[in-house]
Amino acid sequence: MRGYILWRLAGLVPTALVIVVASFALVRLAPGNPFASEREIPPQVRAALDAKYGFDRPLPEQFVRYLGNLLQGDLGLSTKYPQRSVNEIIAAGFPVTLSLAAVALVWSLMVGITAGIIGAVRQNTVWDHAAMAAALVGISIPSFVLGPVLVLVVSLRWQLLPPAGWGDWRHVILPGLTLGTIYAASIARLTRGGMLEVVRSDFIRTARAKGLPERLVIWRHMLKGGLLPVVSYLGPAIASMLTGSVVVEKIFNIPGIGPYFVDAAFNRDYFLVMGIVLLYAFFLLLMNLVVDVVYGLLDPRIEYP
Amino acid sequence: MSKPTAPDRLPARAGAEFVGSSLWQDAWKRLRKNLLAVASGWLLVFLAAACLVGPGLIAFTWGYDYETQDLAYGPRPPSWEHPFGTDFYGRDLLTRVLYGGRVSLSVGVLAALVAATIGTVYGAVSSYTGGLVDAVMMRAVDILYALPYMFLVIILVTILGKSLLLVFLALGAVGWLLTARIVRGQVMSLKEQDFVLAARSLGTPPGGIVFRHLIPNTLGPVIVTFTLTVPAMILQEAFLSFLGLGVQAPRPSLGALINDGANQMLVFWWTLAFPGGVMAAMLLALNFLGDGVRDALDPRMRH
Predict the structure, then answer these.
(1) Terminus-to-terminus CA distance in chain A, angstroms?
(2) I want to staple B284 with a disulfide (CB 3.0 to 4.6 A). Which of A140, A223, A228, B216 is the partner?
(3) pTM for the complete prediction?
(4) Which residue on chain A is closest to B145 by alpha carbon?
(5) H helix or E strand, kind and range, residue A293
(6) Is there a contact between B262 and A247 if contact means CB atoms under 8 Å apart?
(7) Is the per-residue pLDDT at B17 higher than 60?
(8) Do B245 and A137 touch (CB under 8 A)?
(9) Nearest chain B CA: its distance from A36 CA (Å)
(10) Within chain B, where are the H helices?
(11) More confident of the two residues B300 and B209
(12) ipTM, 2 decimals?
């Protein structure tokens, strides 16, 4: 097990390098430049700006320098916000985005797994059909429709929670629900499918034959099977929650990292775009690794080399 | 799932009293029995028809289109003249929603087609070639899988410019990973089967085997993935438009309409309710239909 984790960690290095090269190429070979959108800049100022950010150097040299700085944890300076480094912007925004995604994840797992269990245990009953219909409706309501509707009802009509902004725990609930619902629906379907996949297996029959109470059969044996597809779905789900929070942050006016990214991509803020893409990519690589390890822990049939 | 491409010179063995039915006929029969899927299919036909001819019909009959403003009229709630109401500039919301629906549907279908084509060919070639090529090609898929998908699309859209054509190319270019993985898995088992060996011993070149024998046999799962990719792509396009990266004003798209509506929902509720409702109905119908197609084509998946 430890050998497997170390081997996978080592495998991250070439992957990470490819991602750095690819995103550098994608961002730098794009037409336009960070200073193009501003009004007439005198050539001297432009030259000084280029020198400040190192854009006057040949591209390969810039890449080597970027990589060197990256290894020391320095993501460079933002061209859009000249007073701030990319590290500062990320340090301010990423925790916000991360806590939003965490709330969404917990919410989606709680609701999704519960609905999935109900669907599987009461298969083909009214309960099952209701849970699965609700899941399909949940998948079909985009966050940018659900968000405003929740604000309208919960914040403005019932006045229970603040409609926007960021501060204490009450600000995170509505955005978390908005972001998480679509995943709750997918998780419900996956849980139900996974549990029904194992419901007729020998080990379930054995568990029942030895007289295990049905409650324990469900919780200890069937749920494990039901969670396997959910676990492998979590990697992509977390990825899309983090990027999907762009929209939710816009709806609820939350100072996360999403608005910065859209702005940065527009303004060719090279280092900020690179910094955010790399941060997300590395985070996702790690999450996928964790997911694979958890998957192995849950499924005894998988052996590690 | 597989329908081995048998040589058609074989004498027919089935007697006249026995009429066989192909996989596709079976699937069609199963699909037609699924009431929800059939209803969703009709709703989609209706929506697509309305989106296709609606704006033109309205322009022909009443003489205004999605950008005709009537500032004196202004934003008014639904009425007989304007069933969906009018927006801030007095533009007819029904026309704008229909036009936006047309954008959404075409982007969804085309982007899903691009994704399915790239994914199928990529997965089949990778799997059939095998060995080092397969390892490298699949590693590339893994790497792309780890990249924040939506951010990649945003970068591509800002690089390529905001034309509609490029939006769906960008979506399709990033969205083919799942199809590639599924097709690769299918081909892995298919390529060991006898009909492939037969084709190879007859001297069929690798390209012929991949395109004539392997890919047709993966069509079931590809179609299932395709039907479920369409709503996903529609959602992504709306997502982009919501962020102001998709179709540009004054041309409407559902995402942009919802964005406008969300900003004024307190005063003009209909500007959010109708675009949002149509978007949700469209996605719901597509998901129900996709589910039905999956159950029909892959009975093992149904519980």
Answers:
(1) 8
(2) A140
(3) 0.78
(4) A236
(5) helix A270-298
(6) no
(7) no
(8) no
(9) 14
(10) 23-33, 35-62, 93-129, 131-146, 149-160, 164-174, 177-190, 194-201, 206-208, 215-217, 219-242, 254-263, 270-297
(11) B209
(12) 0.74
